[in-house]
Amino acid sequence: MERKWVMCPVCHNKTRLQLREDTVINNLMLYCPKCRQEKLINVKEFRVEVIG
Ligand SMILES: [Zn+2]
What we know:
Elements: E1 3-7, E2 14-20, E3 24-31, E4 38-44, E5 47-50
Antiparallel strand pairs: 1-2, 3-4, 4-5
The chain binds zinc ion.
Zinc ion (ZN) binds next to loops.
C-alpha cells in the first residue's frame, strides 16, 4: 500500500503524519513541528483539505 507524508499547509515542510492511500481523516488538528502552527484538516485519497 502506498504511503505519503502530510506536508504542512503553511510552510510546506514534512509533518510527522503519514497517510496510506485508504486513510480518511475528518477534523484533525495537524500540528507542524517546523512552524509550530496548528491547522484543522480533512484527508481523503491523499488530498489534504485545510478547513481552519
Ligand atoms: Zn509548518
